[in-house]
Design a protein that fits this description.
Elements lengths: L6 E4 L19 H9 L2 E4 L2 H12 L12 E4 L13 H6 L2 H4 L4 E4 L12 H9 L4 E3 L5 H9 L6 E5 L5 H18 L2 E5 L5 H11 L5 E6 L7 E6 H6 L11 E6 L1
Parallel strand pairs: 1-4, 1-5, 2-3, 2-4, 6-7
Antiparallel strand pairs: 7-10, 8-9, 8-10
């Protein structure tokens, strides 16, 4: 033992607060709930949503300390015009409790922290500082969507958000489609929920008819679904517009 605490990678639900009536025990393992209940130090992407989750945790597993007594620090947000390395001291400060012997929970707004998530930087710093990193099991929208898609699960890439500018977005879709066709690699992407339908329309008007497109909406939530079809079949299907408040994951394979 080196006297240091650990960095616990704490999974979150995938509801983004859209449906907080969901029983946490249906989504998160009991070990996760028990661990969340005992932690007193947190590094959070969003302190407000972390408090909301912990309030829900307390309804099924009593917290070791009152919610108001917990130390919840937010991950630094990079200011415009400032170099990425300028805030390294603020990031390292999040690990101070671990260096003092306390376990620290790293939590994202949804799903697994540090996967397509800014928390990855804190994990890297923890390794540099000799702090043990402990990942816990929980939902990942990207992996759930990939598993449900029927697309290539042996070779895939998460490419994040597409450009908002229409011309740049079309160019990026064509680039990803060409890459997918060349390497037979599934391309995974996401969008801000209120732009879900706009992204779907951009994909359907840009992709070749034979390219397969999978859309997963509200995974782990009541009424969540996944559908995979060719772009041509999507166009023929007359599907209703995607919801503008529920997260979605898009995947394509040319």
């Amino acid at each position: 033992m080196n006297g240091k605490g650990r960095l616990i990678l704490m999974p979150n639900t995938l509801d983004f607060g859209v449906d907080d009536s969901l029983d946490l025990r249906d989504v998160l393992p009991q070990r996760v709930l028990d661990t969340a209940a005992r932690l007193s130090h947190w590094a959070a992407e969003n302190a407000k949503t972390t408090r909301s989750l912990l309030k829900r945790v307390s309804e099924v597993t009593p917290l070791a300390q009152p919610l108001q007594a917990l130390q919840i620090a937010e991950l630094p947000r990079q200011a415009k015009g400032r170099a990425a390395g300028d805030d390294s001291a603020a990031w390292r400060a999040l690990l101070a409790p671990a260096l003092a012997g306390h376990d620290v929970g790293l939590i994202s707004e949804a799903g697994l922290p540090a996967v397509a998530d800014p928390g990855a930087r804190l994990v890297a710093l923890a390794h540099e500082a000799g702090i043990e990193v402990v990942p816990l099991s929980g939902p990942s929208s990207l992996l759930l969507a990939l598993a449900a898609s029927g697309l290539n699960g042996q070779s895939f890439a998460f490419v994040g958000y597409l450009p908002v500018d229409a011309a740049a977005r079309i160019a990026r879709i064509r680039e990803l489609e060409a890459l997918s066709a060349k390497s037979q690699q599934t391309q995974l992407l996401i969008e801000t929920p209120y732009r879900n339908e706009a992204l779907r329309q951009s994909l359907l008007t840009t992709l070749k008819p034979s390219t397969r497109l999978s859309i997963s909406v509200g995974l782990t939530l009541p009424g969540g679904w996944t559908r995979t079809a060719t772009a041509a079949d999507w166009k023929r299907g007359n599907s209703p517009a995607l919801p503008d408040r529920v997260p979605a994951v898009f995947a394509l394979l040319a």
